[in-house]
Backbone:
């Protein structure tokens, strides 16, 4: 909503921006699936929304609503916080069978901190035996009070699965928009428009892109973008489905291409008519940034030199007392800026009495050769999120004995990094390839288990080996799953081992879906990485 220093244009009603918040698995993405007629939730790794998304929905009456779909996992608190900063309303999804949970409470805190009105949608009301009054009473203890209890919060009972109660909810959002009389806001003087950056990432096909919400003004030409990171010429605008558009209206979600680098999520992006204006504005933003940093130092009461000296004294005292903390060096790569920020925030909070994490480097996009070299020199591990490892980089990492781990589900990353941190002092283990087979055909047995008809192309394949199944698509390598070999067969005979060059049938204790001819079964052992 407009703050006190923004100039409001009277009689100019705009599209509301609604942040969908709540606990993991309470049905936020399923709700958006239902009103948009899509199946986003089925594509999510682990069923969890990993990135912030924005969607534009048109109701039956022609009313437009912009929804920001924010992740529910606790690591994404900073991303949900940004959602609250840019939105007019928070739509709090609460599962009828689960009630108020940690991220429910945190979402309420964000909304109240930024003075954003809350709308509650109790989802999964199709489940038998639920107690809706209990949930309403529980929410009222956190300051979210339904109208029937004397409060001013709109409550709706919905089922995203059965698609019931959705029209009433959308009508409620429209009603609230009219009550609050949402007004358009003038962009910064000398600019055409302002946008809020939700996500920024590097796309292999079109380069650096950013997902934004247009906060003020309108865009109808490819002009210049300006942020604290610099200036760029707009190449194109895309709508929320990533289709090209010629015009962007206020409150509309859109993608922008032509960026020279990935931009920090949560920043403001300004648009001006020409390069001269862009350079002047960029200089102005840089001066303000320096002034803000100096102000922060004054508030803290220490100069940079004093701060460094204090850290040296503290460090020397810790060494004296035997309190020198071991550090786990980590290089972090993620698919988007917003996700990266959330990961870094959580990793920095993971520590034990004896060890803590040191973020050696971080960024978006695939791991580079230089980062593998840096990891080797610093005895660091490399963790990536939603990024396949290019085959060239995977080979370099194996040769340099650098541990690279790829994750599709964020809490698996945190669990494994925590395990490594807890065992710091013991050697960190890496997977060393000892044998490999190429899948030729997949057979399904009567009990549902699979036999992978394969040719051993490297080493000696033994029963009992731990294996992972990999697929190479162009220059990227994807892991389909892992398990242990329970049976090796040559024709109908059970054998203990199969030599290089021979065909065999391989059975694995863990059924792995969608294995195809051409995939590789890689046997590995664990060795000390450093």
Residues:
């Amino acid at each position: 909503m407009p703050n006190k220093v923004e100039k409001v244009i009277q009689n100019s009603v705009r599209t509301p921006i609604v942040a969908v918040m709540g606990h993991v698995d309470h049905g936020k993405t399923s709700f958006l699936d239902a009103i948009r007629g899509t199946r986003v939730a089925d594509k999510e790794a682990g069923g969890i929304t990993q990135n912030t998304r924005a969607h534009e929905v048109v109701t039956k009456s022609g009313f437009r609503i912009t929804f920001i779909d924010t992740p529910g996992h606790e690591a994404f608190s900073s991303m949900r916080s940004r959602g609250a900063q840019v939105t007019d309303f928070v739509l709090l999804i609460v599962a009828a069978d689960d009630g108020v949970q940690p991220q429910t409470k945190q979402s309420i805190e964000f909304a109240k901190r930024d003075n954003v009105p809350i709308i509650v949608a109790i989802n999964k009301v199709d489940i038998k035996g639920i107690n809706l009054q209990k949930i309403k009473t529980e929410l009222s203890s956190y300051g979210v009070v339904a109208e029937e209890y004397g409060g001013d919060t709109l409550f709706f009972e919905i089922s995203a699965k059965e698609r019931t109660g959705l029209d009433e909810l959308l009508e409620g959002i429209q009603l609230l928009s009219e009550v609050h009389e949402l007004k358009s806001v003038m962009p910064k003087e000398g600019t055409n428009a302002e946008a809020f950056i939700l996500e920024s990432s590097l796309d292999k096909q079109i380069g650096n892109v950013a997902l934004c919400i247009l906060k003020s003004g309108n865009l109808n030409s490819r002009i210049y973008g300006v942020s604290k990171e610099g200036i760029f010429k707009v190449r194109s605008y895309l709508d929320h489905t990533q289709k090209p558009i010629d015009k962007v209206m206020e409150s509309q979600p859109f993608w922008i291409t032509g960026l020279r680098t990935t931009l920090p999520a949560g920043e403001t992006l300004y648009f001006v008519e020409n390069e001269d204006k862009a350079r002047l504005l960029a200089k102005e933003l840089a001066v303000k940034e320096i002034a803000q940093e100096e102000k922060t130092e004054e508030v803290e009461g220490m100069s940079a030199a004093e701060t460094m000296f204090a850290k040296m004294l503290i460090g020397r005292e810790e060494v004296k007392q035997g309190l020198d903390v071991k550090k786990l060096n980590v290089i972090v790569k993620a698919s988007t800026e917003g996700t990266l920020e959330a990961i870094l925030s959580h990793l920095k909070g993971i520590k034990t009495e004896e060890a803590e994490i040191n973020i050696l480097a971080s960024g978006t996009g695939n791991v580079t050769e230089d980062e593998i070299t840096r990891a080797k020199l610093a005895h660091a591990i490399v963790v990536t999120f939603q990024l396949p490892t290019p085959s060239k980089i995977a080979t370099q990492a194996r040769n340099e004995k650098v541990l690279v781990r790829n994750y599709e589900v964020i809490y698996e990353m945190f669990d494994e990094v925590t395990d490594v941190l807890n065992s710091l002092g013991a050697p960190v283990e890496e997977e060393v390839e000892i044998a490999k087979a190429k899948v030729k055909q997949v057979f399904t047995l009567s009990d549902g288990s699979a036999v992978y008809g394969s040719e051993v192309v490297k080493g000696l394949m033994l029963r009992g080996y731990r294996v992972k199944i990999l697929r190479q698509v162009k220059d990227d390598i994807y892991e389909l799953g892992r398990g242990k070999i329970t049976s090796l067969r040559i024709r109908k005979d059970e054998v203990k081992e199969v030599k290089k060059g021979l065909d065999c049938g391989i059975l694995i204790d863990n059924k792995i879906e969608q294995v195809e001819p051409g995939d590789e079964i890689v046997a590995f052992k664990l060795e000390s990485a450093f």
